[in-house]
Amino acid sequence: SKNRLRELLVNLGFESEHGQCRTTEVTSIEGEASANNRKAKLIFFYEFVINLKWKGETADGTAVTGTIEIPNVSEENEPSDIEVSVKLTEKEDVAKGKVKDLMRTKGAEGIRAQIGCWIKDLRTEYAKDLVLPVEKPVATQLPPLAPQPSAAPAKTASAPSAPKPVTAVGTVDLADTFKCRPEDVFQCLMDEGRVRVYTQSD
Fold it and tell me: Cβ contacts of residue 6 below 8 Å, gap of 6+?
C-alpha cells in the first residue's frame, strides 16, 4: 500500500500563468492499511499521515521549494475531505506565494484524486483474492428407500444386577445452650422482624 501511494503521489505537475510546480518526493508515510473478510464481505481499515516535498518556478523563473502534509487519510474521510497543507521552505514573496497557491489549489485537487485511485485499488485489485465465492448447495433428489423386513427383536442376556450399597444408619444428638431467657429465644424464632434481621432476607 505504501509503495503504491509513493508511485501515485510523486511527479505530479501543475502550472498556470503564475508559474509551475511539481511533487518531487514522498518523505514519509506513517500508518497502515488492512482488509478483513467477514462473512464474504470486506471491511477496510486504513490511516496514514503523508509528507511530501515539492518544487516549482515563478513566472520569471525563480525557484520555489516547499513541503506538503496530508494528516488524515483514513476510511472515515472521503477523498474530497482529505486535508492538504502546503508550505514554503523559504521566505515568501508575492510571486512565490502565487506558486504556493497553485500547489494549494490545483495541486491539492490532483493529490486527492490520486489518493482516490489508491482507495479504489485497495477495494478492488489488492483485495479481490480475499473474497472467496460462496458456492450454493445443489439439491439432489434421492430414490425412495425400499421397505426393509422387520426383524424380530433379539433377546439380550440381562446383566447380573449389582449388589445394592448398604447405608449405615445412626442417631445424632445435638444440644445448644442459649445464654438468654427462654422468652427471648421464642421471640427470635417467632417474631417476623427479628427473623428478617438475623436471616438478612425478606
Answer: 26, 29
